[in-house]
Amino acid sequence: MKMERLSQDKIRIFLTFDDLTERGIQKDDMWREIPKVHELFSEMMDQAYMELGFDASGPLAVEVLAMPAQGMMVIVTRGKMNFNSGEDTMEDELEEEVYELELTLEETDQVTYAFNDFEDLLRLAKVMAPMLTDGGTLYAYKNKWILLLDAEAMDEKKLQAVVAVLSEYGEAASVTQAVLEEYGKTVIAENAIGTLCAKFQ
């Protein structure tokens, strides 16, 4: 379980499928209201408090993005407490310490990896070229190179192999294609892996 603070009121947690399996949770369980998922969420909030000083009191918006072969990206945003609701309700809230959750669940068929160094990206391209017929799209976003591949065309075994190689050179990214299109810059629109290999031999 990896976590990082995105802003004062927002954190991102990356759960691998191993993290879920260790806790006896299947990927599909994240969509259901079961005690194990509540326990996992409490554990994540405790760890977020210890590691990042993130206090999960008050209303929380939780976005869960399931990524093929990578795991789950969980983004937690803390809302503002409503202090005008009278003293009694404030005391009740403090006593109960129950999370008020607004949950959004999404699934994506895209595998997105970020690279800090262009050299790492080139090394990856040389290893990946024989594995892929469609080499994805390359974006520049927030001083990183973001490679986006479509997992839909790959079978489970191939997907696992591709993700294993990607993990050696880059790190899983939670940014969506819509955000990359709007705020990033498209560097290579299609077959990025093949194009990188051809241009930088």
TrEMBL record:
Enables the recognition and targeting of unfolded and aggregated proteins to the ClpC protease or to other proteins involved in proteolysis. InterPro entries: MecA_C_sf (IPR038471), Neg-reg_MecA (IPR008681). Belongs to the MecA family. Signal peptide: none annotated. Homodimer. The N-terminal domain probably binds unfolded/aggregated proteins; the C-terminal domain interacts with ClpC. This is Adapter protein MecA. It comes from Paenibacillus filicis.
